[in-house]
Design brief:
N-(1-d-carboxylethyl)-l-norvaline Dehydrogenase, domain 2, about 50% helix, Rossmann fold, about 325 residues, homodimer, 2 domains
């Protein structure tokens, strides 16, 4: 296997320019790459330009834009043209197995053994997507978190036919461009971060179902409390620090028995969302939103997220 | 029932001056109250002064300290003296039912019908703590999140004998002093926020057990991704915003089927922490910490948390 040296890469390909792909394109451009993009939808190029125009000042504010970078992608007329123009390609096509398989076959027909295809898939399994391709070894999942141009996390996982060395390469590549890549060792539905989120939401949903608190109060139970620490450390480190000077060992000895007791009462695996519960969720979120429209909430989220990312950059972890 | 008018309160009592009680004392002082404190441990007053000295500059940096406030608590010689000196008392005694019951009996003997006892208990049930007291109706849980002088969240829940009007009063009181109080409608072990945290950690632990990723990578899956949003919004609102312009209704129709599929594979209720898993946790956290000692990590957490709280204050939610 040969893989491009990170410093030799000047152009990146982007296939699929929806919300995720366009955000990737903006980020790659900000990092100084030429970016060649293709999408099958009508009118995609104008939407891409709009998205990049929105993302660019955010990227500038975060200090992500390198000298000489320009918000101008190159438009391709086909996936083959992207494959011809770039060795490393981030694929963010529709989350549909048939669509991905058809696209991969098209790409596979014109790929070289040096190409690297990084898939943004959140819900599909690489082993199924890559099966039967001549260049199956060159496909690996690089799943970002929305929006990719702002959120550092990228989950890297290979399929059954992925070259193990390519997984290492992908981890290194994302770190090289300023992302925080993590290695997922197995293919499971939802990878890791979304499963963790789903576990949290399951308990939040059960709290509503059980009448423990309102939607707004359940949300505040995270955002005004433990959520503040979850922007700094993950759940293992937070509980290690809850163990004081004895760390995780102390936590396991002294605090975990209480947690086991809670877990035993948290025993509903797949809660049914009845019409009544759905109504309570929808009404509860509306009540929490108050006078804010969805546009207001999105603007608030993006503005506060940007401020938070700047703060974390200016108050860095010692690691 | 009579309850003190918020604006008439000039003195607050603090019983128990450990980590939680001392942090409460610092916060109450910063808000301009006289604070009368008692703790049963030897040497408590000096430790309290040290804790307040550490917290005070943080509270000043956050702009929480009101004009005329001074970091000087009044020391009491007994719980009875606190009850004599303050009508509203935050109790943060040892998390032990026998200890709390004995203390409550002592207080009960000298309380008036106007007194309000707010308990910081994280793990005990108020109905059991208050049972049989003459002034049982005047006891309510006001559970803070550590450290109380920095984290806004306070969970309010009454016991079987608590006056329902006192629950409303406690919610109003905490909001009045600048905290974010939420109403918990039922007594369950761990209240709400800690149960939500436990649900998240359960899945994080299972990811380690199943070999899905390393401790450091599991932690990054939160802190470098969804954790950044959890400092801004709770899980319900985050998923409502994931529904785009259609909000929670769209989310329920289009994205929840996938989440149900994940949930069905997240079916371990009470994972056993075997010696091997405990070792993997301890080693994994040490690896994640790298060269950082626990003191370093605590300092990093507190410094970054303070910066984050300032950012959220300066970039407020429209609600």
């Amino acid at each position: 296997m040969t893989t491009p040296k990170f410093d030799d890469i000047t152009t990146l390909g982007v296939i699929g320019a929806g919300t995720i792909g366009a955000s990737w394109a903006a980020y790659f451009l900000a990092r100084g790459y030429q970016v060649i993009v293709w999408d099958p939808a009508a009118g995609w190029a104008n939407r891409l330009d709009d998205m990049i125009a929105t993302a660019w000042p955010q990227l500038e504010e975060l200090g992500v834009v390198v000298a000489g970078a320009a918000p101008r992608p190159v438009r391709a007329a086909s996936p083959e043209e992207v494959v011809a123009g770039a060795t490393v390609i981030q694929e963010s096509a529709l989350e549909n197995m048939a669509v991905k398989r058809a696209l991969y076959a098209q790409m596979d027909a014109v790929m070289t053994p040096d190409h690297v295809i990084l898939s943004s898939t959140s819900g599909l399994i690489m082993s199924e997507m890559q099966a039967g391709l001549s260049h199956a070894a060159r496909f690996v999942v690089g799943h970002p978190f929305n929006p990719p141009h702002l959120i550092p996390l990228v989950e890297v996982v290979g399929g059954a036919d992925t070259d193990p060395a390519l997984i290492d390469w992908a981890l290194g590549f994302y770190d090289h461009i300023g992302k925080h890549a993590i290695r997922i060792n197995k293919e499971v539905p939802g990878h890791l971060a979304n499963r963790l989120q789903a576990a949290l939401w399951r308990e939040a949903l059960l709290a509503l179902k059980d009448g423990l608190a309102s939607v707004a109060d359940i949300d505040a139970a995270i955002a005004k409390g433990p959520g503040l620490r979850l922007a700094l450390f993950g759940p293992h480190m937070i509980f290690a620090l809850a163990g004081g000077k004895g760390g995780m060992a102390h936590f396991l000895d002294h605090l975990v028995p209480g947690i086991h007791a809670w877990w035993r009462t948290m025993d509903e695996i797949d809660p049914e969302i009845t019409p009544d519960l759905a109504r309570a969720l929808i009404d509860g979120v509306a009540d929490e939103a108050g006078a804010r429209t969805i546009d207001d909430l999105e603007a608030e989220r993006d503005q506060r997220l940007l401020a938070l990312l700047k703060t974390l950059r200016d108050t860095p972890s010692a690691r």
